[in-house]
Amino acid sequence: MRQLDGYPLVRPHGGWSLLLDTATLGLAPGEASERLFHRGRVAATPMTGWGPSGDRYLRLVFANEPTDRLGDLRERFRAAFG
């Protein structure tokens, strides 16, 4: 969470996922997902189709991610979103 300070995140209340509010960034979830994947080398799932409020979120799952792979997450987000 500290690495992504300043990004429009929805804090998790447990579990292994984190939501990014892509509407705040002026992007659709699918476009944000493409940017993260191609520019930041981060895979994230658009929440489109997960209910009416899902159309603005991107889901990042950390269930099986080694902590050392998360060390440069902020730089990966900057590469994707500037």
UniProtKB/TrEMBL annotation:
<dbReference type="InterPro" id="IPR015424">
    <property type="entry name" value="PyrdxlP-dep_Trfase"/>
</dbReference>
<dbReference type="InterPro" id="IPR015422">
    <property type="entry name" value="PyrdxlP-dep_Trfase_small"/>
</dbReference>
<protein>
    <recommendedName>
        <fullName>Aminotransferase class I/classII domain-containing protein</fullName>
    </recommendedName>
</protein>
